[in-house]
TrEMBL record:
Disulfide bonding pattern of the chain: C42-C47
SUPFAM superfamilies xrefs: FAD/NAD(P)-binding domain (SSF51905), FAD/NAD-linked reductases, dimerisation (C-terminal) domain (SSF55424)
Native source species: Bradyrhizobium ivorense
EC numbers, comma separated: 1.8.1.4
Further details from the record: The active site is a redox-active disulfide bond.
Protein name (record): Dihydrolipoyl dehydrogenase
Alphabetized UniProt keyword annotations: Disulfide bond, FAD, Flavoprotein, NAD, Nucleotide-binding, Oxidoreductase, Redox-active center
Domain Pyridine nucleotide-disulphide oxidoreductase dimerisation as annotated: residue spans: 347-455
GO CC terms: cytoplasm
PROSITE patterns the UniProt entry points to: PYRIDINE_REDOX_1 (PS00076)
Binding site residues for NAD(+): G180, A181, G182, V183, I184, G185, L186, E187, E203, G272
Residues the entry annotates as binding FAD: K51, G115, T143, G144, S145, D313, M319, L320, A321, H322
Length: 466
């Protein structure tokens, strides 16, 4: 029987990164993957394909609407959807092969099949009609998450789709109804809207992007409406009639009341994701779950069973690839006897739309609720030189700092390239820096990042360009 120091179940960003770090630390490692390709949700049906389509559809939109005003005259772009899907697939393949290469480079065994924990120290792998059992000193559960479903609305991945189906539609729907104004709804809604679909988003709450700063979300909503999105907030879809040529969705106010019917070619259900532990044998192995079905862990990623750990989407916390990766590294280091650690106060979140939305640390609502005295500095991109010359002035930077110590507690950005810009705030916050530190850091001119410096100056009421 093969024997390892560590067997990681699942090869998403959490699992494969954990395996690499453990191998770097001298462990003999195997990963178990039931999917035909490595890389998990993120590489196969998540982050990567969605970003490829966001990029391609943005280029399509720019060619159609922005080139001419810059004096670049081209004939109206034509959409070749199969070619765009091929571009997406090439991106997936490249990244998946990259993970395969990294497994080989780090001498990590890849065991293809479904992993089942038979108890501490034993994992059964079954696939292709074969079953083998391997011995291991440690197990890391990195099995990720699955789509959350709406009761009574069956996803067929053709007309009623989850994010997976929405990444592979065969033609542009003339109308797309999206259930849930979260990250997936707004990103994939943007893709299909740019390619020509009429997009309506039904959201249960009275705001979009719950969890993001309220002011930033409100501004972002207005920008999306200007692009052509329709939002129905405080509403829910209770049924979808699939009998006709077009789908008929029944939409009711969240608090109850008169229903209306909205017609759509395609309905995208994206109301969150749920931890995935099916077939893992956790019950038999005695591994405890919390009340939301997530694997329960302590501060060191250890489950209640010694030698079994868990990381990523299958445990509590934001369901983000970089959070899973950082947990993978920390968990491997802890298993190796080192002091691995994740700072959950500094995990950025990005929505990769146009413009982008990014965020790190506390929102204004969270600070208010916690009774923390804070100061705010804001700077709009309309006053940023680079944004002006590029005519991409939508959005703002908002810096929240502790009123007494000036320590930065949160940074929120809506605007082009916001996803790249957020990281200087992350580094600053990792070092416990202040708004004054940011304000006194020389920023290259002309860059959009100068808006972060100006927003930090604005905390002390001394922005220069406003
Ligand atoms: P996963 O990536 O879900 O990987 C789990 C793996 O475990 C899978 O490969 C699965 O096949 C395997 N597995 C499960 N059970 C078993 C078993 N019993 N035996 C063997 N293998 C098993 N996050 C971001 O940070 N940025 C983004 O831009 C982003 N975009 C997204 C877009 C979409 C459309 C979606 C759906 C998600 C997106 N996410 C994004 C979220 C991101 O994909 C997840 O947070 C991330 O993949 C979690 O990583 P993980 O390693 O925990 O699990
Ligand atoms: P989400 O949690 O971001 O948003 C779900 C939305 O649906 C919420 O606004 C919620 O209020 C709403 N909702 C819930 N039930 C509803 C109902 N019955 N009717 C109407 N609205 C309802 O989840 P989403 O968008 O499905 O994404 C899943 C996960 O994937 C997220 O946790 C996210 O972090 C991750 N992801 C991250 C991305 C990124 O980092 N750029 C991109 C895509 C996904």
């Amino acid at each position: 029987m093969a024997s390892y120091d560590l067997v990681v179940i699942g090869t998403g960003p959490g699992g494969y990164v954990c395996a690499i770090r453990a191998a770097q630390l001298g462990m003999k490692v195997a990963v178990v993957e039931k999917n035909a390709t490595l890389g998990g949700t993120c590489l196969n049906v998540g982050c990567m394909p969605s970003k490829a389509l966001l990029h391609a559809s943005e280029m399509f939109e720019e060619a159609a609407h922005s080139f001419a005003k810059m004096g670049v005259s081209v004939s109206a772009p034509k959409l070749d959807l199969p070619a765009m899907m091929n571009f997406k697939q090439q991106g997936i393949d490249g990244n998946v092969k990259g993970v395969e290469f990294l497994m080989k480079k780090n001498k990590i065994d890849v065991l293809k099949g479904t992993g089942k924990i038979l108890g501490a120290g034993k994992v059964e792998v079954s696939g292709d009609g074969k079953t083998e059992t391997v011995e291991t000193r440690n197990i890391v559960i990195a099995t990720g998450s699955d789509i959350a479903r709406l009761k009574g609305i069956e996803i067929d991945e053709k007309r009623i789709v989850s994010s997976t189906g929405a990444l592979s539609l065969e033609k542009v729907p003339s109308s797309l109804l999206i259930v849930g104004a979260g990250v997936i709804g707004l990103e994939l809604g943007s893709v299909w809207h740019r390619l020509g679909a009429k997009v309506t988003v039904v959201e249960f709450l009275d705001r979009i992007l719950p969890g993001m700063d309220g002011e930033v979300a409100k501004q972002f909503q207005r920008m999306l409406e200007k692009q052509g999105f329709t939002f129905k907030l405080g509403a829910k879809v209770t049924a979808v009639d699939t009998s006709g040529k077009t789908l008929q969705a029944k939409v009711e106010p969240a608090a109850g009341g008169a229903a209306e019917t909205i017609e759509a070619d395609v309905v995208l259900v994206c109301i969150g994701r749920v931890p995935y532990t099916e077939g893992l044998g956790l019950k038999e192995a005695g591994v405890a779950l919390d009340n939301r079905g997530r694997v329960e862990i302590d501060a060191h990623f250890s489950t209640n069973v010694k030698g079994i750990y868990a990381i990523g989407d299958v445990v509590a916390g934001p369901m983000l690839a970089h959070k899973a990766e950082d947990e993978g590294v920390a968990c491997a280091e802890i298993i190796a006897g080192q002091a691995g650690h994740v700072n959950y106060d500094v995990i950025p979140g990005v929505v990769y739309t146009t413009p982008e939305v990014s965020s790190v640390g506390k929102t204004e609502e969270e600070l208010k609720q916690a009774g923390v005295a804070y100061t705010v500095g804001k700077f709009p991109f309309t006053a940023n030189g680079r944004s002006k010359v590029n005519q991409t002035t939508d959005g703002l930077v908002k810096v929240l700092a502790d009123a007494k110590t000036d320590r930065v507690l949160g940074v929120h950005i809506v605007g082009r390239e916001a996803g790249e810009m957020i990281h200087e705030a992350c580094v600053l916050m990792e070092f416990g820096g202040s708004a004054e530190d940011l304000a006194r850091t020389c920023h290259a001119h002309p860059t959009r990042s100068e808006a972060i410096k100006e927003a930090s100056l604005a905390v002390g009421k001394r922005a220069i360009h406003m």
